[in-house]
Amino acid sequence: QVHLVQSGAEVKKPGSSVRVSCKAPGGTFNTYGISWVRQAPGQRLEWMGGIMPLYRTTHYSPKFQGRVTITADDSTTTAYLELSGLRSEDTAVYYCARSFLGAFLGKLSLGWFDPWGQGTLVTVSS
Amino acid sequence: EIVLTQSPGTLSLFPGEGATLSCRASESVTSSYVAWYQHKPGQAPRLLIYGAFSRPTGIPDRFSGSGSGTDFTLTISRLEPEDFAVYYCQQYGSSPLTFGGGTKVEIK
Fold first, then answer.
1. Is the pLDDT assigned to residue A94 strictly greater than 90?
2. Which residue of A has its CA nearest to B99?
């Protein structure tokens, strides 16, 4: 069974940055992408962006463009989410998820998510 | 972006009953690129359906998906105790990828 293992909880000050890691099984990056999804308290799931490591391509939601950076280290099959300019509204559980690839947007892009990591709670508080 | 609206917000049902969950898109979803997830507190979401009606290996056949265009449905034929959870739809036919607001299925 495939497991994605995320780094532990973080507490950050407003204005700072956070980096969350997601370790995937070997070979994942040859076929799949990795997406990042967050859920703030009482809110719906929200896709932040994703990466297709084999193609060295990233896609970001316009909402987070400029504040989020998603990277992947092929040697360790670990993906990273970095979010800068943190504010209290960024307090949420952040999930990584393996993303199936296909021509969903008329070009190679990220599709559905399976499986998901266990989630990382990021708390932004002064 | 495509906005997904799920209804009802909450379904109160007895174990053994059937459940019908709706997901309506603000515009047509390309090629029915819709997925459904089950989410329990403290756990990671679990994929139930992709491509509007395809079930991954290991998902019980009491879960089924249907629909096209702007209207999609997740049906649970007979609720088992472990099925009480929140269910989300997601579309991946348009960027940004988006999720619905969720339907909570609770024990009556």
1. yes
2. A45
3-state class of A24 per DSSP? coil
The DSSP code sequence of chain B is ---EEEE-SEEEE-TT--EEEEEEESSPPGGG-EEEEEE-TTS--EEEEBTTTB--TT--TTEEEEEETTEEEEEESS--GGG-SEEEEEE-SSSSPEE---EEEEE-
**Helix (H) / strand (E) containing A89:** none
Angle at CA of residue A69, ends B88 and A58, nearest 5°? 70
CB pairs under 8 A between A and B: 72
What's the start-to-end Cα distance of chain B, in Å?
A: 36
Question: Which residues of chain B neighbour A105 with C-beta distances below 8 Å?
Answer: 30, 93-95
State pLDDT tens for residues B8-44: 999 999 999 999 999 999 999 988 999 999 999 999 9
